[in-house]
Amino acid sequence: RAKGSLSEDICFYEKTMDEAVRQRRRVTQGLRDALENEEFELYYQPQVSVGNNEITGYEALLRWRQKDGSFISPAEFIPVAEDTGLILPIGEWVLRRACEEAKHWDKPLRLAVNLSPVQLGHTDLPRLVHQILIDTGFAPARLELEITETAMITDMARSTFILRQLKALGVSIAMDDFGTGYSSLSTLRAFPFDKIKLDRAFMGELADNTQSRAIIRAVLSLGESLSIPVLAEGVETVDQLNFLREQGCDEVQGYLLGRPNRRALPLSQESVEIAKAS
Ligand code: C2E
Ligand code: MG
Ligand code: MG
Ligand code: MG
Fold this sequence. Notes:
48% of the residues lie in helices and 18% in strands. The protein has eleven helices and nine strands. The radius of gyration is 21 Å and the shape is globular. It comes from Brevundimonas terrae.
């Protein structure tokens, strides 16, 4: 071998493994401290009706602010929080804080909150949601819980049982990231979701992607047949919005309409013009 021996490779591998383990430990300890020190914040991204260009609600998105003011993405720390079980207290904090903050919005619009599969696997979830609704005085009809299809595959019967209990509280349930897992259709059959959120993976360059356009059409038609409204995630361009409107999409969410913000902001004048013109 010209460069590096096998033992050197293994040594390198062990070092990176070691580094990964240490990084994970740091994040875990950091998450514990973050809860205590109020380092979490919720940002809110508008969801907009395609029919009348009005905001129907906001999705709460968790942000972890570091001492230096920078943010760590939920894509990085949620998986660690799930592995360590810390997602349970964090998820409870998210739900409670979101309901408290949304109570003070100018308009009583819908509040969408993400639930982790780990939370769904927890028997006490319906009781916890019920308790938070009571404590905060938040109207259940305004609350929508977002659940990914992967949250349901380990035990479909149990998951649907818990989702039914949640619905009985008067909250609605949306299927998040639709189309990215491998059980989208059987999950749709197992539970009467109130909304389908089509994953942003299908947006991209719609103009020259026949496949994406066909899939979006099919999902919209599926939603129509099942009487489940469809929201398209990750809408960034006027072309995408035009296509979605033509095809009868119900709601949209994405940077074109508004980025996640610390406050539940109304649509900017620019976004209003864009939405009207499209
Ligand atoms: P998600 O629930 O599918 O949320 C949508 C993600 O897409 C958000 O990323 C949002 O900022 C981003 N996004 C919105 N519009 C656009 C767009 O036009 N273009 C692009 N490229 N991205 C857009 P974020 O906030 O980084 O969250 C990532 C994921 O982390 C979420 O995906 C959700 O699965 C998870 N997450 C966020 N907050 C929570 C939480 O409180 N609890 C749990 N369990 N998971 C959360
Ligand atoms: Mg979501
Ligand atoms: Mg999503
Ligand atoms: Mg996602």
